[in-house]
Write a structure and sequence with these properties.
Helix content is 52%, strand content 3%. It has a two-stranded parallel sheet. It is built from eight helices and four strands, in the order H-H-H-H-H-H-E-H-H-E-E-E. With 303 residues, the protein is mostly helical.
């Protein structure tokens, strides 16, 4: 211990100066560190300011740069476009109302009951409470009407409807002819002008129009409303085929000779809006007006 005191005794004379040097060195290091940090921040801020000046400088070269007046004008244009779109949709809806009419074969009391039920999603709840259901008589009447209509749609294009019942209410078996008699007396029936795949007809009937196993053999109110939308589309498709083929007497004259499948409603998801053309070319889908909905006598679904 004494030796240490002896060694430090000369140093103790210079403690003050040693402390001054230490403080100077620490201060100098801190200054350099702070200067480097401030320099980096300064350069960053300077770059941001230059970028802002350059952006502002480009506005000088533009005519009528954005400002509060242009923003107000843009809001007016947006509101005007919104009004035009709303008006266009309203006109389209009104136009469709004149086309998509409930068939008169269902009689006035039925039509008066179903016409107020649109738009469907806001008028009929799901699941539908009993007080919102149409009368059983109305729903059975509609089921019978569909059984009558489907064969007539097939016949309209010169084809044969296989599943369900024919227009007289007699069960129709796959392969029967347009009269529902098939081959009689060994005389071959006249072949259909358009061959509509019987399995596709069975699928279409089972997924959209088969209510025989339901209570009272009748569709629900929602099924009636949605089935009618499907029938309007199906009617338009058959109308297109008939117009495309024209007035023909034999299958070889037909442009559309075979119907492999008719997809409507949920089954059309993924295939909607596409038409396979010859040579594997694709065309765009047709709108409601292009589908021949205008002036085709939707009353009674007449062709």
């Amino acid at each position: 211990m004494n030796k240490i005191k002896t060694l430090l005794k000369p140093v103790m004379k210079y403690v003050f100066w040693i402390g001054c040097v230490a403080v100077l060195l620490i201060s100098t290091g801190s200054w350099f560190t702070a200067r480097s940090s401030l320099k980096s921040e300064f350069e960053k801020n300077l770059g941001d300011i230059k970028t802002s000046f350059q952006t502002a400088g480009t506005l000088k070269t533009k005519q009528s740069p954005p400002n509060e007046h242009s923003n107000a004008a843009m809001d007016q244009l947006t509101q005007r476009a919104h009004r035009l779109v709303t008006e266009a949709w309203r006109k389209q809806y009104s136009h469709q109302e004149t086309i998509l009419r409930w068939p008169r074969e269902l009689r006035e009391d039925f039509i008066r009951a179903v016409e107020p039920l649109k738009p469907i999603e806001t008028r009929v709840d799901f699941p539908t409470p009993p007080h919102q259901e149409l009368k059983v008589d109305f729903r059975q009447r509609y089921a019978n009407y569909v059984q009558w209509l489907l064969p007539s749609l097939a016949e309209a294009v010169g084809s044969v409807w296989s599943p369900g019942r024919d227009r007289s209410g007699i069960a129709r078996m796959p392969g029967q002819g347009r009269t529902g008699q098939g081959r009689t007396g060994g005389v071959a029936e006249r072949p259909p002008l358009v061959v509509w795949d019987a399995s596709d007809q069975a699928r279409l009937y089972a997924t959209h129009f088969d209510w025989e196993r339901q209570p009272d053999s009748a569709p629900t109110t929602l099924q009636v409303l949605y089935a009618q939308e499907d029938l309007w589309i199906l009617h338009a498709l058959m109308h297109i085929i008939r117009r495309t083929n024209g007035d023909i007497d034999s299958p070889h004259e037909a442009i559309v000779k075979t119907i492999n499948s008719v997809m409507i409603g949920p089954s059309a998801v993924g295939r909607a809006g596409e038409v396979m053309m010859l040579g594997a070319r694709r065309g765009t889908g047709m709108g409601m007006d292009d589908m021949g909905m205008d002036g085709m006598g939707m009353d009674g679904m007449g062709m």
